[in-house]
Design a protein that fits this description.
Elements: E1 6-11, H1 15-27, E2 31-37, H2 44-52, E3 56-58, H3 61-65, E4 72-75, H4 82-91, E5 95-99, H5 106-118, E6 123-126, H6 133-143, E7 150-160, H7 177-193, E8 197-207, E9 212-222, E10 227-233, E11 235-246, E12 249-253, E13 261-269, E14 272-280, H8 283-297, H9 305-322
Parallel strand pairs: 1-2, 1-4, 2-3, 4-5, 5-6, 7-10
Antiparallel strand pairs: 7-11, 8-9, 9-10, 11-12, 12-13, 13-14
Helix pairs in contact: 1-8, 4-5, 5-9, 7-9
């Protein structure tokens, strides 16, 4: 009988797992939350077990990976741990959905894909917003020429991060604004424009004590002549939106990347202003279901390896420009 449900294991009790991805697994039509795990028994692991009722709760990541009943794992660990646990999961023949950024450099991303291929498992970067009907609708509007030839795009993502103990401010764990939120800006710009930048110029604010970027402002040029700007920051008030300018108008998306419920697309052109409302389900549920179809039915991952590699290469270039050599 054909398998219709993916048994999921979650490696780590991170906030993104608790607030977003585990609810997505529980809501998905082809998924079962089979196991959760933590570095040790008790504490957060008990909280997750009591709240989400998995079949199993393991006091180590290794125990979870050793369970043959688990088909796929979700990895929400700090960025610098993605490579290690992706490779370990692949060696245990688990399909892997790994949080963005997939690796902290392009070399890690390439090695992660090699490990997955050698062990016959799938690997996909967890950019949940790309599964949203909001994102697809914007891409459709651009492809249909609603604003004419695209000339410029800008994307902004910021919030104020003042907890000095947050892992996003720890260099050894892959902290920094560009890894955490700038990756969204860069991904949506590349996705909408549909090609890779040929010129990159980046500046940023550096926390010298933490050794991470607190902001980055990136100017991009593409071979089609399109220009783009990405701004991300841990030292600004919350903002999440993007705008695309064309020869015949512009499209503004004043929504957080993973908006749930009614989301707006505002089109301004020669005929005036139009507002399109898109109903967005839970993006993380859509992400889990899509990866499940890849495992069960042979569908291709929405976020391809090449996509992840190009975003990683771009982040490598940006951080190479804004971080001092000694960092």
């Amino acid at each position: 009988m054909k398998k219709t449900v993916v048994n999921w294991g979650v490696i780590g009790c991170a906030g993104i797992a608790e607030k977003s991805v585990i609810p997505g697994i529980l809501a998905a039509n082809n998924a079962k939350l089979y196991a959760v795990s933590s570095r040790k028994a008790g504490g957060r692991l008990d909280e997750f077990r009591d709240r989400f009722s998995p079949v199993m709760a393991y006091g180590s990541y290794e125990e979870l990976l050793d369970d043959p009943r688990i088909d796929a794992v979700y990895i929400p660990l700090p960025n610098a741990l993605h490579y290690e646990w992706t490779v370990k999961a692949a060696e245990k023949k688990k399909h892997i959905l790994c949080e963005k950024p997939l690796g902290i450099n392009a070399n890690e991303v390439r090695a992660m894909k090699t490990a997955a291929d050698e062990n016959g498992v799938l690997l996909m970067e967890a950019f949940a917003y790309r599964h949203s009907p909001l994102t697809r609708k914007v891409k459709e509007l651009i492809s249909a020429g609603v604003i004419g030839k695209v000339r410029f795009m800008e994307s902004h993502f910021s919030y104020f991060l003042d907890n000095r103990k947050d892992v996003r401010l720890v260099r050894s764990l892959g902290g920094g604004a560009t890894y955490d939120i700038g990756c969204y800006n860069l991904d949506i710009i590349r996705y909408i424009i549909g090609s890779e930048p040929t010129a990159v110029y980046a500046v940023g604010d550096i926390d010298t004590a933490a050794g991470v970027d607190m902001s980055s402002c990136v100017m991009l040029e593409f071979d089609t002549g399109v220009k783009a700007v990405s701004y991300c920051s841990f030292i600004c008030s919350p903002r999440s939106e993007y705008t695309i300018l064309g020869e015949a108008g512009h499209i503004h998306v004043p929504e957080v990347f993973n908006k749930e419920g009614e989301a707006r697309i505002i089109i301004t052109g020669k005929e005036g202003r139009e507002e399109i409302v898109v109903e967005c389900p839970h993006n993380y549920m859509l992400e889990v279901e899509q990866f499940g179809r890849c495992i069960l039915d042979g569908e291709e991952p929405l976020i391809t390896f090449e996509d992840s590699m190009q975003n990683a290469r771009l982040i490598d270039t940006i951080l190479g420009q804004i971080l001092p050599p000694e960092m």
